[in-house]
């Protein structure tokens, strides 16, 4: 403190009462625990600095304090523009720095207020973001500015950019990227090995999540054809191992058959498609029964992943297989009726008859997953002479069955990890696109839309051209007026044109003479999912196109040229 | 590119069976249309074929060198052994059910709407966790009622009752098919005079009841709590209005409690019912009884070891399993033993020596760990000649083996006798009486029972027993152990009791009551002194008898309760592998998938020396993506994920890798992760995924 006093004695230019206020504030800062930690560097720095700048932030003394000086001396415009970006309105770029220091001061004040709040509401999360540290810096760094009633214009501006720059770097705004400094790092993988539940809480703690803003707009997504073509080119490095794994499972077929004989049903689980294994088992069972009894056993294979599969159709297939030509002409609409018919048919056959083997692929696939379906399958499993082998792909499939179902199913479980791709089970491209929220694209994309347009009359094509032109114009306007807005896919989807406006344009261009006709044309587009429509806040209908901008331009080009 | 290669790469078969929902399997080459009718004819003729199939199920062991007869022997001895045990289990289950069954069936017979003031007679059966018992009960009740032509039982589950119409239709159909079969139902619907009734018209049921002369129509709702309350109310009020024409009796299976169930129904609905509450015995008791009878019966030849016992009880208590499920697990244990253990052939009776004398089997016996210990013991005893014979002479070895097997089994039986004896003694000494036979068995099977504090405490407590109780105890012990020494003690006691019939029960010198505390006032201070009360002559005699008994018991327990694992050939008569049972009945599918994806080379025994810990392009695509996923935060940027994914391939293959191929792999991996439910679309940011599963959680 002694140093500081002498320090203030040396500085002549600014009037003393204000100086006192500064000292007071610094004293106030001391209980907070910030000021006392750094007095020596502060003092040192102030010795070297010109008197007017002696109050520069105590924290920045370490290293940074030297550089801003030079920079401020150079008055680099880059810093100013950065400051503007964050704090000034973008409309008047030139005047902001030069003429309105008050704006900058206002911004500073609001930053200080915010920082004070951050410090006041200290929490663990702030520590992760680094916002707390930043707040400290702002508060302390701004002290001199408050102290001086009328700081030289240049000074205040020069002092600001570096703060602002730091702010830009450290503020928890997403665009800012990773904050620097080890303490600020919000890493998804914490130090050390955390148990799984701790990791869960670590990753799900409140606060902004740091992920980059990159998106898939630049990456062209795969179409179905390309996916299949490219998958065909891929050479699996683990092919031999997978085959070996399959052969291991193959060896347990006699065991499974024994389990069947003893009245158990089988459930096989584990990673990988088990369809091939099931098919091999069917083949093995068929030939085995053929060689033993000279009559092949009845084997029914069910693909649970088939969309739209019904329990009734499964039961009906089994009934057909069991009863052969004696199937009654009318089976009944309810699955229970068919099941009871099956049960009575099996009962009448007696115990000595050949068993009926039912193999169900992916019993946990969405079409079969419902509780009612599982209850019916469990009843099927409990029927004598029925042998049920099911495969399950998802990790949590046992939760489908409560104790009474488990009792009826009477399952033994085998881990049959095959590592084979779920090529038949899943529509890969469709799944991924729905996962990425690009379901609309699938309906045809650029090619699809172009194809539909070719088959439409001239009028319709003109209307679509009009719509696209308007949309692209709107997008371009939007980007010009508001260059902050990232041009990501989400934005493109949102752009639209008001129904009335489009109608007006359409009548102007003689595309549609009446609203009736206009709507008829739009309906055609709707049917092919070529346009989207939604209501905006005021209740007006907004029309859009489910295509990215590039695709829109492509379609428009074709329309104009074609 | 040729289509075959593509299909091959994708694992698609050429026939389009994968796109069919359900189809009858036809092998690719033999699928001729003319084959099916003929094979059906053959099936109906063959009567004794199942046995023939069964034989084929067992695979020759010993590297495939086991001869066919041995395989058959193993299978046959399994059949024989298990069928015995199964009879026992069935008997127990029937016995357990018998009480409730008679109660319920007499309730059904005796009550009608007249005796219930016009209400619907209702039996409320609380089953608790013992779910399967109700279906056993119902099927037996059904048999009873049908055989006496009084009526029948219709079982209804909540799944059958989506709405009132379907429920009624199901009830009517089930009632008629229960007695007349499916054709009967169809005939019943069509062969009626007058206007055709709809399937859910209770007039149909009325008609049926009249034709059949049904006196009781029991409608059992197996899982009453799962029924929609509104539907149940409608149904009951409907029954109430028909009760004068159709003799309904409702049977409600309740898993929670009657109060809770009643609370859910409106009062007007509860007022329609009048009935009685029945309780089914908890599954736990039943399981204990089954275990006891399986292990301690004198005919038992194969025992379940301690690991398996604890696994069995663990699973049963964790999953609230029914007694049937328990016995199925035991069955599976038996199956595993006979299916996979070549020594199981020794169980065949009589043992076909000639057949057994294969070199391989003898080698197997010589390689047993227990054989080694056995030989070492023999060498220590000095009988080296015997050891040499066993090592060199196959015939001698087999003879010894069979003798030792018998001896071992005998020892196992006595272990369980001792367990029962301890159990009986505990009932007299332990106030709380918590130790069940299964608890004791686990200890005995690990060889810890003889030295346990439980037994020590028991011995200490037994000293204080009075003569009446002791007499009873010895009587019960004699039922279990046939031992001369015990008989002698019993005779002594009897003699003693006869000599002094007037003195009531005798007390031993160890009894706390025979220590007398004397209070003396010495120089105005109270002095307490303990001393042995004067024992009567009989009491002294009695104390001697108690001492005799305790010495006998201690000797007996120390002698019989040996560690089963120390016995020669315990591999043959003691099944104690934890694993097949635990994995087959309490699987961990999530763990399996996580492991497969996180460390794929645990499964894919890689020939290349790829390091297991590092992500490499050698791994399957989904495994790579999953490991990247594990490293990410709760929110994942797809673009960055894709960059990281393709980076893995670029690093290793350099320029040679096709970006679009890698993209296809990325697609398939992403779709698989989505199917597993570990990722979902996030609305927070564009092109982001939300993580929804944590490994090991």
TrEMBL record, chain A:
Residues 88-102 have a biased composition (Low complexity). Keywords: DNA replication, Nucleus. Residues 1-196 are annotated as: Disordered. The keyword Hydrolase does not apply. GO terms for biological process: DNA replication. Residues 170-186 have a biased composition (Basic residues). It is found in: Nucleus. Residues 493-551 form the Origin recognition complex subunit 2 winged-helix domain. Belongs to the ORC2 family. This is Origin recognition complex subunit 2. It comes from Penicillium antarcticum. The lineage of its organism: Eukaryota, Fungi, Dikarya, Ascomycota, Pezizomycotina.
Automatic annotation (TrEMBL), chain B:
Belongs to the ORC3 family. GO terms for biological process: DNA replication initiation. Residues 590-694 form the Origin recognition complex subunit 3 winged helix C-terminal domain. The keyword Calcium does not apply. InterPro entries: ORC3 (IPR020795), ORC3_N (IPR045667), ORC_WH_C (IPR040855). Keywords: DNA replication, DNA-binding, Nucleus. The lineage of its organism: Eukaryota, Fungi, Dikarya, Ascomycota, Pezizomycotina. Residues 1-49 are annotated as: Disordered. PANTHER family: ORIGIN RECOGNITION COMPLEX SUBUNIT 3. This is Uncharacterized protein. Pfam families: ORC3_N (PF07034), WHD_ORC (PF18137). GO terms for molecular function: DNA replication origin binding. Transmembrane segments: none annotated. GO terms for cellular component: DNA replication preinitiation complex; nuclear origin of replication recognition complex; nuclear pre-replicative complex. Residues 42-346 form the Origin recognition complex subunit 3 N-terminal domain. It is found in: Nucleus.
